[in-house]
Each structure stands twice: as C-alpha cells, then as structure tokens.
Design brief:
The complex is a heterodimer.
Chain A lengths: L1 E2 L7 H30 L3 H9 L2 H34 L5 H9 L6 H12 L6 H7 L7 H12 L1 H14 L2 H8 L4 H30 L2 H7 L9 H10 L3 H29 L1
Helix pairs in contact in A: 1-13, 2-13, 3-7, 3-8, 3-10, 3-12, 5-7, 5-11, 7-10, 7-11, 8-10, 9-10, 10-13, 12-13
Chain B lengths: L19 H30 L1 H8 L2 H34 E2 L3 H7 L2 H4 L2 H12 L6 H4 L10 H11 L2 H13 L3 H8 L4 H30 L2 H7 L9 H10 L3 H33 L3
The chains are: A mainly alpha, B mainly alpha.
Membrane topology (chain A): Multi-pass membrane protein
Keywords (chain A): Membrane, Sulfate transport, Transmembrane, Transmembrane helix, Transport
Subunit structure (chain A): The complex is composed of two ATP-binding proteins (CysA), two transmembrane proteins (CysT and CysW) and a solute-binding protein (CysP).
Chain lengths: 272, 284
C-alpha cells in the first residue's frame, strides 16, 4: 500500500485511513447488501420460491413490470423530444422550460405524491370533475404510472441533452441539405450519435421506476393484490411480520439494482 | 444541475431543422400534465388556506415536532456523511490498494438500491435481535424506533453525495502547492488543513448541502426504521401523508409547501456554491 504521487513517510497514516474506510464501508454498505440475500434464503431455496410465488407478491412483480413497461417508451420519447427541442432551437422561455423539466429532481418523491393527491383526490382540484366522469386515476394504474413518470422524467433528457449540445447540429443540417426527411435525419444521424447516452438514461429511469416507493405509496391506495407495486409489497409483508417474505421480495429488487450498477459502469465507459 | 450549464447561442440555425412543432407539443404536453399541473395544485391549495390558518398548521405541536425531528436527524446524518464522504473521497483518490475499484463501486450502492429495500435491511440489522442491534442495545444505544434510526436511514440513502462531489475536485487538484508546502517543512496535517481542504471546500459544501436536502426528503427508508410515533419519531413528510389520509388537505398542503420551501432554499444555496466552485476552477 503506497501513496500515489507523494512518496511521503506517513505509510502508517495511509494504512490507518484505508483500514477505516474499508471497515466503515463494510459495516454501512456491504453487510446490509449481503444481509438481504442471507435473510431471503435463510429458510432454504424452497421457502424463498414459495415466498416469491405467493399470489400477492407475484402480482406485485407483475404490476411493477407493467409500470416499467409503460413508463420506459414514454420516457424515451419525451427525453429525446425535449432534448431535441432545447438543443436545436431557440425560443423565448427555453431556460424556464429546462428548469421545469428538471424540477422533479428537486422535489422529493413523497411531496410529488402529495401534489397528485391534492390534484386528483376526492377534495382535490380536479377531484369532483373526475368523480362526475367516473374517471379513476388515483388508487389505480394511471395514477401510479403518472407519478412514476414525474419521478423518472428528467433522467433521459439529462443524459441526452448535454451530448446533443456538445455535438452540435452540423451533421443534421448537412443531411437536411442533402434532402433527408426529418425522420431519416433522426434515425440515421441523431440516433446513432446519442444511442449510448439514451440507453444509459433509460437504464437509470427504469431502475428508478422499478424501485420508487414514496411517490407511489401516496397514490396507490395500497389495495392488497391490486395496486401494490413490489416496493410497496415489501412494506406490506414487513408490517404483516412476514420478514423472510419481505426479504425475498427485496432480494429481487436488489438483484435488479446490482445489474443496473454493472450496466451503468459499462455504459459510462461508452458515453465518455 | 449539469443540464443548465451551457445553452449554445444558436442564432442563425433557428428553426432550420425540422421537428420544432412536434417536440414542442410533446414536451409541453408532458410537462403540463405530469409536472406542472400537480405542482400548481399544491400552490393553489396552499393559497386557499390563508396565512393565519397556514401558520396555525405549521406551528401546531405535532407539526413542529415532526419538522424538528426531520431537521435534527437530517443534520446528524449529514454530519456523518460529511466526515465519511471526505474520508472515502480522500482514500479513493490518494491511495492505490487492492480492492480500491470495488470500494469505489460500493459508493453507488445506496443510489441503486430502492429505498424500501434499504429501510428493510437496516431495520432488521439494527433491531434488538439484529446483528447490529444485539451489540448496540445492551450498550444503551437503541436505534430502531428512535431518532438515531431515522438518522441511520437518512445517512445510508445520501452516502454518495459528498464522495461524488469531492472526488473529481480532489483528482484535478494541482500538486505544486502541496509540494511547496512540503519543502517548506509543513506536516501532512498542516498541508491538508491549509492547502488541500480550502481547495475542496466549495465542492465539499455543495455535497453536504445536497446530502442534507436529500435526507430531509427521504421517506421510504425512514418509515421502516422510525416506528413513526407521533411527536417522537414521525417525520414531516409522513405527517403530510397522514393528513391526506384524514382528508385534511389543507394540513397536508401546508406541511408539503413548508418542505418544498426548505428544499428550494437549499437548492438555491447549492447552485450558488456551485457557481462559485466553477468560477474558482476556470483559471486553473
């Protein structure tokens, strides 16, 4: 163990600091991570499988997959559209629009959920209107999808926009003068240039969509076997004192998180 | 935030490329329905309450207790993360040792892990018969269902902020001043305090500010470990949700607006610090 760039005589100090950093990280990060799998499989694989295949947990996995499947294409489309709009055109209010697109990153998800209830709830702004039209947004799939879109909205644009700005629009303008249509320009010029950033943003947004708890918990209404996403199901099992079941459900999300980390590392190498 | 950094002055290319109408339409529809409408609902509800009633809600004993708990626990969590983050950034940048890259990757776990999963694992570990609780409880440090538990959950979910803001600045640091200080006979501790720390201070402050803001807004991890006892271990955002469930929309809106106001102040503070940080880095 040696200090880089600085051949200092404080080898002991370096060792002490490295040891402290490793020990703290072990206790704070590594042990909790390992503990999830340890508890999930503490009853053996059969018990684990039984917990995962319990109807309510299975339904939660299904609902979470549906939410992710709906939000991903919308996030991609909106991410590309807003990045294109802001990188390629000037118009009054452009900076303000960018601030609003980024706004969900500065509002905590639980507050986002409260906002949705204040809008669509029974005594909310649009509540009476929805009740009259018998439109169900809250405590149902639309509300869960919309609040997930709120929380995950900025991810794709945040990755794609800086890249589009850095690359400039010379290639696209050249394609335009050569007679390419808008769709052809996007598919042949823009998309190949931004594909890794796009994928990176999509991975981050989807990981967040799958794991979101606070925002979804407010709008879902927590109806057993109906509006419980996987993170909410973990809380339900925990409150039911089915701790091993909760850890089994949690282990699937942890596995997804680890896969996302690996993907992230790979994609970061590509986008830089 | 990085996105605001550079808007190119694109004078003549204005609307040469196709897609202005389409992308503008899509973006405005999305922003309007998903982001603006709900946020406007919050402000309209808040405006409806009136200042006197708003003040009464926010200064009610239960609200004050919740706000105090949230702020204190977030401060405890941030104090820990400031020290731990600084240590991790220093060790990861300055030393080479086996397992360094793995240790670096571990810093991303708290972001990647869903907060409910983190809350579940921490609660089980710190509960009286858990691995950590078994040691801490007999020592007179109960964590679960106390403010310490809230702080533990908050600090876990905001671990990466200080590390990841300080790390790049520490990497780019010019070594000539350090070398000069060393030749002049300064001790390593003196070099750190007088040369290195002042250089990384803005980044360090940005990181701690964001960590504090994130801790204030943390919900998922906290509610598992807190026990959520009114007046004792109930965080402010949970109280807002409880008010909603009681159909007390005014109460919920007032508490939510207070939290948004605090978050906005912290955001402005961190942007201001960030602006100072970039100005300082330009001549280097």
């Amino acid at each position: 163990m040696s200090a880089v760039l600085a051949p200092r005589p404080d080898q002991g100090g370096a060792r002490l600091l490295i040891g402290l950093a490793v020990a703290l990280t072990l206790f704070i990060v590594v042990v909790p991570l390992a503990y999830i799998f340890w508890r999930a499989f503490s009853g053996g694989f059969a018990v684990f499988a039984q917990n995962i295949l319990a109807p309510d947990t299975l339904h939660a996995i299904w609902l979470t997959s549906v939410v992710a499947a709906i939000t991903l294409p919308i996030n991609l489309a909106i991410g590309i559209a807003s990045a294109w709009l802001i990188a390629r055109f000037t118009f009054p209010g452009r900076k303000a629009l960018l601030t609003i697109i980024e706004l969900p990153f500065s509002i905590s998800p639980i507050i986002a959920g409260v906002c949705y209830l204040l809008l669509y709830g029974r005594q909310g702004l649009l509540g009476p209107l929805l009740a009259a039209g018998e439109v169900k947004i809250l405590f149902a799939l639309p509300g869960i999808v919309m609040v997930t879109l709120f929380v995950t909205g900025p991810f794709v644009a945040r990755e794609v926009l800086p890249l589009m700005q850095a690359q400039g629009s010379e290639q696209e303008q050249a394609a335009l003068t050569l007679g390419a249509s808008g769709w052809q320009i996007f598919r042949r010029v823009t998309l190949p240039n931004i594909r890794w950033a796009l994928l990176y943003g999509a991975v981050l947004a989807t990981a967040r969509a799958v794991g979101e708890f606070g925002a979804v918990s407010v709008v879902s209404g927590a109806i057993r076997g109906q509006t419980m996403t996987l993170p909410l199901q973990i809380e339900l099992l925990f409150n039911d004192l089915n701790i091993v079941g909760a850890f089994a459900a949690a282990s699937t999300l942890t596995l997804i998180a680890l896969v996302v980390l690996v993907l992230k590392t790979v994609l970061e190498g590509r986008t830089r | 935030m990085s996105m605001t950094a550079a808007l190119p002055a694109s004078g003549r290319q204005r609307r040469v490329l196709p897609g202005f109408g389409l992308t503008m339409g899509l973006t405005l529809t999305y922003v309007g329905i998903i982001v603006l409408l709900p946020v406007i609902a919050l402000f309209l509800k808040g405006a409806e309450i009136g200042p006197a009633r708003f003040w009464a809600i926010v200064t009610a004993p239960r609200t004050l207790a919740a706000l105090r708990l949230t702020m204190t626990a977030a401060a405890l969590a941030t104090a820990f993360n400031a020290l731990y983050g600084l240590l991790m950034a220093w060790v990861l940048v300055r030393y080479r040792f086996p397992g360094r890259r793995l240790l670096d990757a571990m810093m991303d776990i708290p972001f990647a892990l869903p907060t409910a999963v983190a809350g579940l694992a921490l609660t089980a570990l710190f509960s009286e018969n858990g691995w950590y609780g078994q040691v801490l409880a007999p020592a007179g440090i109960p964590v679960v269902y106390t403010i310490w538990g809230v702080a533990v959950a908050m600090s876990f979910t905001s671990i990466p902020f200080v590390v990841r803001t300080v790390q790049p600045i520490l990497e780019d640091l010019d070594h000539s001043q350090e070398e000069a200080a060393r030749t002049l006979g300064a001790t390593p501790l003196q070099i750190f305090a007088r040369v290195i720390f002042p250089a990384i201070l803005p980044a360090f402050l940005v990181g701690t500010t964001i960590a504090f803001a994130r801790s204030l807004g943390e919900f998922g991890a906290v509610i598992f470990i807190a026990g959520n006892l009114p007046m004792k271990t109930e965080i402010a955002s949970l109280l807002a949700v409880i008010r909603l469930e009681e159909y007390d929309y005014n109460g919920a809106a007032a508490i939510a607006l207070t939290l948004v106001a605090i978050a906005m102040v912290l955001l402005v503070l961190s942007n201001w610090l960030q602006a100072r940080l970039t100005r300082r880095r330009v001549p280097a």
